[in-house]
Write a structure and sequence with these properties.
It is built from 22 helices and 12 strands. The protein is an alpha/beta fold and 501 residues long. The chain is globular, with a radius of gyration of 26 Å.
Length: 501
């Protein structure tokens, strides 16, 4: 059966690749049972996508509830199975999860597309940790009973927001290891898709919204009024800085941290996130900021990284300690803007707090976020503008300047396709500098990149086809534009260029 039979609904924005993967999984004619895992952060649209898939396929969609106990959950799931089979509520008196799961799979097998979705599985595992083991038994039994030519077998998709729990389902000696054919990790929209999804006309406004909310599509339903195009400052004061709103950044951060069951010492995790937001970039610096030994923060940092709240960025050229940064825009905004003035915000002084926080917002949020967008643009969209086409790994680096006894930070560096990070004598496709300051960029910025390119050549790297890229929030001086028009090794990217005009 071709996957095109299941057409993606118009209200499912983007997600073409993910929809294709899931429909291929669902329409595979193999009679054996198949398992799939879908995971992703809260508000990334997992449930929306899977509900749409279930509706299109006539599948059975069941979701767990955090506050529900074991027996109420079993009964509610049994009632859902009964309703899908056309029976009245309470007609199925099932007492354990094996009966519930087996009955659900049997009911879905009557459909053209035998799909069962269990959403928010980690909530069930809190009181019923036996479920993966039961699924292993059911899976193995049905593999043996699969009859050739009998039509597609049961398709079970398990979904959840607690990333550590979902990723461990298939790890080590866990019961389901080696049994899933789909392990889909649903990420946020990229910055261009996010702008289109929000229907924001002004690219600067789009940049700022993405800097505080990222590309999680679930935020639009709770933060779209007033619309950001009507005035970013007003919008922000009435969303992330409004304690009465669902997207109030302090409440949202607390909710995000509660998603992972391993995060129990909330004060310690808050302090670590604040230290990172304020510039502590290594375990030693984070420990020093908290007046704790380095070892005391190692485990919490590992948890925060596995949940996607922080990331460790490796230098593309040099072997050194990775730089730790915040990966979640809402948490970054909360730790830098809301939390330091939480009392004033909650007393109704959001506008005043926001005015006072403008320098911090510009330097510690917009600036780093613009650099992230420049790297993302280089990965995703710059290849038609580069002589070598699609680049290899993209990141940052530091370049030593022995004569000047200093080091130069490079905001964007792309290796040539096929090159590996931290290898000697690599081919460098692009060197770039990204600035979100109010000043336009000029020939002085270009000369700095030319100097760094020469230093890299002296260190043995291949700069034959290296493009020098300047990314500017506020454009470029005319003499630089004129120079770029006559040189193929210069790329100028302003905000309209980053957003595809």
């Amino acid at each position: 059966m071709p996957s095109g039979v299941l057409v993606k609904p118009g209200d499912v924005v983007d997600r073409d690749r993910e929809w294709g993967l899931l429909t291929d999984f669902l329409t595979d004619p193999d009679p054996a049972m198949r398992l799939g895992i879908v995971s992703g952060r809260r508000r990334h649209g997992k449930s929306y996508l899977l509900q749409a898939l279930s509706e299109q396929a006539g599948g059975l969609y069941m979701t767990a509830v955090r506050e529900e106990g074991r027996l109420p959950a079993i009964q509610r799931f049994a009632d859902t199975v009964a309703a899908h089979a056309g029976l009245r509520a309470g007609s199925l008196r099932l007492t354990d999860w094996r009966d519930v799961l087996a009955s659900a799979l049997d009911v879905t097998s009557r459909s053209t597309y035998p799909l069962l979705v269990i959403d928010e599985l980690p909530y069930l595992l809190q009181h019923s940790p036996e479920i993966p083991g039961l699924l292993q038994q059911i899976y193995d039994e049905r593999q043996r009973r699969a009859a050739p030519g009998a039509g597609p077998g049961p398709r079970l998709i398990m979904c959840g927001s607690a990333l550590s729990v979902m990723h461990e389902l298939l790890s080590g000696t866990k019961p389901l290891r080696g049994r899933a054919v789909v392990d889909l990790r649903l990420g946020p929209f990229d910055y261009r898709d996010s702008r289109a999804f929000w229907q924001i006309d002004d690219p600067q406004t789009a940049l700022k919204v993405h800097a505080v909310l990222g590309g999680a599509p679930g935020y639009r339903s709770v933060a779209a009024r007033p619309h950001p195009d009507g005035g970013f400052d007003t919008w922000l004061s009435r969303t992330l800085l409004d304690p009465g709103r669902a997207v109030y950044s302090r409440a949202e951060t607390e909710y995000l941290l509660r998603e992972d069951p391993r995060i129990t010492q909330h004060t310690l995790y808050y302090d670590i996130l604040t230290a990172i937001a304020q510039g502590a970039t290594t375990p030693s610096k984070i420990g020093a900021a908290l007046e704790r030994p380095r070892n005391a923060v190692a485990h919490p940092l590992g948890v925060l990284e596995s949940t996607g709240y922080i990331r460790r960025e490796q230098d593309i050229l040099r072997t050194r300690h990775p730089v730790i940064t915040l990966a979640d825009p809402v948490i970054r905004f909360n730790q830098l803007i809301t939390l330091p003035q939480a009392a004033a915000v909650e007393q109704g002084f959001a506008e005043q707090v926001w005015q006072q926080a403008a320098p911090t917002f510009n330097s510690k949020i917009v600036g780093p976020h613009f650099e992230d967008l420049a790297r993302d643009f280089t990965r995703r969209y710059a290849h038609p503008l580069l002589p070598g086409g699609l680049p290899g790994p993209v990141g940052t680096t530091e370049v030593a300047d022995p004569a000047a006894r200093t080091k130069h930070e490079v905001d964007v560096i792309a290796l040539a396709a096929g090159e590996r990070p931290q290898s000697p004598r690599t081919r460098i496709a692009l060197l770039g500098e990204a600035k979100a300051t109010a000043a336009r960029r000029g020939t002085g910025d270009l000369q700095r990149l030319e100097h760094i390119r020469t230093l890299l050549a002296d260190q043995g790297h291949d700069i034959t086809g290296t493009v020098l890229a300047l990314y500017s929030l506020h454009g470029f001086y005319p003499d630089l534009i004129e120079l770029a028009d006559h040189r193929e090794d210069i790329l100028l990217a302003d905000l309209p260029t980053l957003y595809g005009r």
